[in-house]
Amino acid sequence: MSPDVEHAKRALRAELRERRQLLSEQQREVAASGITAQLDELVAAHDARSISCFLSTTTEPDTREFIIGAVRRGIRVLLPITRADGLLDWAVADDTDDVAEGLFGLPEPTGEVLGPIAVNDVDLMIIPAAAVDAEGTRLGWGRGYFDKTIGSMENCPPVYAVTYDSEVLDSLPRELHDQPVTGVVTPTRTLHLSHERP
């Protein structure tokens, strides 16, 4: 890992984290409604019956309303559970707001825990991001869970990252292990970016 690239990523994450913390409650609510509408359209466009998503933290674009709505429409939604070994377990979402606190203080589902390979059956993956660029490079929060998961999948479905509009950037620092995303979903639009996975 290049120290320069790692330093650039760390500085950018800090700046993006600070920007998110400055958003007002009203801005967050408007963003949450937009994200729900965009994700609903994305799922419909892919005719997805089984998806993976994530429980948003308080500073991320809110995914909870989308998850509950999808479950109530009969879509199977898998939510990630972090493990100490760097892999993700998964649990099937229900239409309640029950959450537990996982590693790193992240919100996680409370349902039956399924192993890492459970995600291999989804039609669409929706993952968190700090930022995404025009080439589909995704900047995560530095722990590598989603890069490892995507990189290990034999038949990876389309992968869309969720960010705020201001977090779609022209270019991002990229390393070999960084897995590109198919597209990005913001409160106002869905962009389709990379068409082929390496």
From TrEMBL:
Catalytic activity: (6S)-5-formyl-5,6,7,8-tetrahydrofolate + ATP = (6R)-5,10-methenyltetrahydrofolate + ADP + phosphate
GO BP: any one term: folic acid-containing compound biosynthetic process
Binding annotation for substrate: 55, 60
Keyword NAD assigned: no
Cofactor: Mg(2+)
Gene3D superfamilies: NagB/RpiA/CoA transferase-like
Keyword terms, alphabetized: ATP-binding, Ligase, Magnesium, Metal-binding, Nucleotide-binding
Binding positions for ATP per the UniProt entry: 9-13
Keyword check for ATP-binding: yes
Top-level enzyme category: ligase
SUPFAM superfamilies per record: NagB/RpiA/CoA transferase-like
GO MF annotation, one: ATP binding
Documented EC number(s): 6.3.3.2
Segments forming a coiled coil: none
NCBIfam families: MTHFS_bact
Family the UniProt entry places it in: Belongs to the 5-formyltetrahydrofolate cyclo-ligase family.
Protein name in the entry: 5-formyltetrahydrofolate cyclo-ligase
